[in-house]
Amino acid sequence: CGGVGDQGCASCGDRPCSSFAPHCTVCKFKAHKRCAVRATNNCKWTTLASIGTEIIEDEDGWLEGNLPVSARCAVCDRTCGSVRRLQDWRCLWCKAIVHSACKELFGKRCPLGQYKVSIIPPTALNSIDSDGFWKATCPSTCSSPLLAFVNSKSGDNQGVKFLRKFKQFLNPAQVFDLMNGGPHLGLRLFQKFSTFRILVCGGDGSVGWVLSEIDALGLHKQCQLGVLPLGTGNDLARVLGWGSLCDDDTQLLQILEKLERATTKMLDRWSVLTYEAPKQSPPA
């Protein structure tokens, strides 16, 4: 729970919530503690827990109210919204804000926003087959989707902030916590895509973990990997040009833009095996 400022309750409507009211970290759905049990669970994002027969197939991601101060309508460019009650609408995917009266004029199909190249629309995730893979239809706007792995324990648990931010900007089905099952599930779900990109948020150990799993699944020709360095010991991130540390989750959109413009470098990986030779008896 928590939040910033008083906002309208998404359950009872006009009565504002306090700064510490329960809220969804993905869609910012906010309600009084006493209203939370009656709140409609209409967050349209696809989460890891919902992967299965209930994959979301509707791109309608409009949420009413709780708009930023001085928000402007994407249709008429006039100020809209209210911090004291539910009023007007915002799209969870492309972040567009519109008046209730202008909503029908905005368009039926969501453009997915500035970073649509990285986003997998929920309509592209049709179902899960018997082998546990997505039956995915990759649209032209998403020719190389992004798979994000975050080590939530990295950087003195600062990875949790990036985990939440990625779920807000991407489809949460693209975001995996390495501390909750490792990289295998995410790579299995993505391996039916002909090409995809990977962003590992963590230290050198996290990157090595993901690379080892890529080796095991034989996905070298399908994916490229970028690094968002967290914590300490980020020698690999420095060598590859990603810097030594990133601890500001407010720069995430700039990071996504950098990832989309990044060039590919070859990485030589090898193993060293050491063993102790048997001791030889001294000559008699």
UniProtKB/TrEMBL annotation:
The EC category is transferase
- Which cellular component, as a GO term, is one annotated location? plasma membrane
The catalysed reaction is: 1,2-di-(9Z-octadecenoyl)-sn-glycerol + ATP = 1,2-di-(9Z-octadecenoyl)-sn-glycero-3-phosphate + ADP + H(+)
SMART domains attached to this UniProt entry: C1, DAGKc
Q: Which Gene3D superfamilies match?
A: 3.30.60.20, Probable inorganic polyphosphate/atp-NAD kinase, domain 1
For this chain's UniProt record, which GO biological process terms are given? signal transduction
In short, the EC number is 2.7.1.107
Question: What pathway does the UniProt record associate with this protein?
Answer: Glycerolipid metabolism; Lipid metabolism; glycerolipid metabolism
Domain Phorbol-ester/DAG-type per the UniProt entry, residue ranges: 1-43, 59-110
Q: Which UniProt keywords apply?
A: ATP-binding, Kinase, Metal-binding, Nucleotide-binding, Repeat, Transferase, Zinc, Zinc-finger
According to the UniProt entry, its GO molecular function terms are:
ATP binding; ATP-dependent diacylglycerol kinase activity; zinc ion binding
| Positions of the DAGKc domain | 141-276
Classify the source by domain of life: Eukaryota
What family does this belong to?
A: Belongs to the eukaryotic diacylglycerol kinase family.
**UniProt-recorded name of the protein:** diacylglycerol kinase (ATP)
Species, as recorded: Columba livia
| Organism ancestry | Eukaryota, Metazoa, Chordata, Craniata, Vertebrata
